Amino acid sequence: MSALQFPCTIFKTKRWMDDHGADDMHCGDLSETQLKTQFNLFDVSNRANPYTLTKITPFNQPQSAFYDSREEGQKITRQQCANILFDEFRHLSQTFAVYSPYKHLIGEMITHMQNSKGSDFFSLQLNAALREQILNDCSVENSTRMLLKGALDKYIDWENSIYPAKESVRLTKAVLGGKLPKFDRFQDNFNGMGITVHDTWATHITIKSLQIDGNRYRAVVHYKVQDHFGLDDGDISKFKFNSFRFFRIWFLLQRYDQFGFNPFMTNIETTIEIIGGVSER
Hints:
It is a single chain. By secondary structure, the protein is α+β, with helices and mostly antiparallel strands. The protein contains 10 helices and 7 strands. It has one domain (about 10-280). The strands form 2 sheets. It has a 5-stranded mixed β-sheet. A two-stranded antiparallel ribbon has the order 2-3. The chain is elongated and about 80 Å long.
């Protein structure tokens, strides 16, 4: 009986890593007319009008009790307007990041979008958040970690101290039977992780090593996760997105042909251990 060789990638999502052609990676591709007629983006910012490049005050804001239709507002440059919108973007993000060690991440990612021209984003704290999510998920039905442990417990060949190559599909099926690590829990609506990552685009899971000693084993498992910090047409067309000024500003900064700030890939990874034994079969 042949042994499975490690490292061994046991799972890859159908969606690719580094898919720069994805819908939510488009930028600078929509005109003012399209933004207004297709996505109803008339009222975007409380601070500046991106279409007329003017500052908004109580006197030229139609929703204000002090509105005066003769007041045009102070003219600003396109760069000044972008800076104002990004400052408002960061300010509004605080609604989604009330507490936790990760609440500052959304501000960092917005600034990355503003300054980094689409380069990939990495963060040790994002890696830590992924690790915490995987280790804290103890659901036998959903946790990929727990389901992998069940497959290892069951299919390790204890007599020969190997994991049989012919049973590798059991590891893939274990992952398919669970829920990939995401940040869509209730607490993620307020701890900053739901707005920075929430769902994910692509995931790879690799067993880097498997050590079997007597009746115990230790598996080292690596999770590589990628998300896109960008919005597509479907996102902004949903009421729950379009009703928030936060997302209207985000979509305009990314997709308006007068701005076109690049979305980017968010790369997250962590390595965990799975430990078990013959008595846990």
